[in-house]
From TrEMBL:
Keywords: Cell membrane, Disulfide bond, G-protein coupled receptor, Membrane, Olfaction, Receptor, Sensory transduction, Transducer, Transmembrane, Transmembrane helix
Function: Putative odorant or sperm cell receptor.
Pfam family, one: 7tm_4
GO MF assignments: G protein-coupled receptor activity; olfactory receptor activity
Annotated GO CC locations: plasma membrane
Family the UniProt entry places it in: Belongs to the G-protein coupled receptor 1 family.
Organism whose genome encodes this protein: Ursus americanus
Transmembrane domains' residue ranges: 26-47, 59-78, 98-120, 140-162, 205-225, 237-260, 272-289
Name of protein: Olfactory receptor
Bilayer disposition of the protein: Multi-pass membrane protein
Length: 324
């Protein structure tokens, strides 16, 4: 048999968002601020829900878990992307690349199922209000969250199984800011047509099935709301608007990337930025701006830890110690 010498790939080169050296400092500043906003916004929601007894309900329990997953979605790749705006050679080891693939599908898969759970919560609250607390007990809420993580784990394990044994012996440039599975598999030195189809089928099935469940759920809820008095359903409409907006923002890019076959690399890159950076930052904004209970709880949290005059006192103390 003829032996063929292969130089096995031990690291990948991430081409990032832009090759322009002039843009790198600007992108570093912008995405650093966006990532900081993601952390602060979602941590604020988690602290608000856990500290205010008025928000100890199934809807807000699921919302706090959504904020936690949003932090995870933003954190699996954003810190490395931000750091690499300051370096010329953007590389990632083979093992770290597989880790990114594992975590992106774990977190996004879990978020899809959690959004379905939040839709079910709204369905029970609006369509079966008298049985809401019985159906959506604390035990049920915990089970729903655990199911979302379990489905995410099964999804990412199946996705990683398609990739981990592929031979990479030549090309190693990934045209993205993280190891996106469809782009990585195309670098393998074997025919990956069948593997690519399986990857798209796996992600497409989870995305489309979750999205269809959400469409059916919210359609039933909207019909129920429409048939009731406007006064009693005003709050429900406001909550539903926030939920539906989040669903569209999250599922739109995911479905486009993994289901739509004609997207280009540049379009995929923009959409990847959208669901890994902009969706996690928009979720807390959407839920707080349209929710009076959350805004009231945040005001109480602010008054508890930032009492009038406390900030000015801290500033005066700092200035005093600097002048000594």
């Amino acid at each position: 048999m003829n032996e063929i010498n292969h130089s096995w790939v031990t690291e990948f080169v991430l081409l990032g968002l832009s090759n322009s050296k002039e843009l790198q400092p600007f992108l570093f500043l912008i995405f650093s601020l966006l990532y900081l906003a993601i952390l602060l916004g979602n941590i604020l929601i988690i602290l608000t829900v856990t500290s205010d007894s008025c928000l100890h309900s199934p809807m807000y329990f699921l919302l706090a878990n959504l904020s936690f997953i949003d932090i995870c979605v933003a954190s699996f790749a954003a810190p490395k992307m931000i750091a690499e705006f300051l370096v010329e050679h953007k590389t990632i080891s083979f093992d770290d690349c597989l880790a990114q693939i594992f975590f992106v599908h774990l977190f996004t898969g879990s978020e899809m199922v959690l959004l379905v759970s939040m839709a079910y919560d709204r369905y029970v609250a609006i369509c079966k209000p008298l049985h809401y607390m019985t159906i959506m007990s604390r035990r049920v809420c915990i089970i729903l969250v655990l199911i979302s993580w379990l489905v995410g784990f099964i999804h990412t394990t199946s996705q990683l199984a398609f990739t981990v044994n592929l031979p990479f012996c030549g090309l190693n440039q990934v045209d993205s800011f993280f190891c996106d599975l469809p782009l990585v598999t195309k670098l393998a030195c074997v025919d990956t047509y069948v593997v690519s189809l399986l990857i798209v089928a796996d992600s497409g099935f989870l995305s489309m099935s979750s999205f269809l469940l959400l469409v059916v759920s919210y359609t039933v809820i909207l019909i129920t709301v429409r048939n009731r008095s406007s006064a009693s359903m005003a709050k429900a409409r406001s909550t539903l608007t926030a939920h539906i907006t989040v669903v569209i923002l999250f599922f739109g890019p995911c479905i486009f990337i993994y289901v739509w076959p004609f997207s280009s690399y540049s379009v995929d890159k923009v959409l990847a930025v959208f669901y890994t950076i902009f969706t996690p930052i928009l979720n807390p904004v959407i839920y707080t701006l349209r929710n009076k209970e959350v805004k009231a709880a945040m005001s109480k949290l602010k008054s508890r830890y930032l009492k009038p005059g406390q900030v000015s006192t801290v500033v005066r103390n700092v200035l005093f110690w600097e002048t000594k």
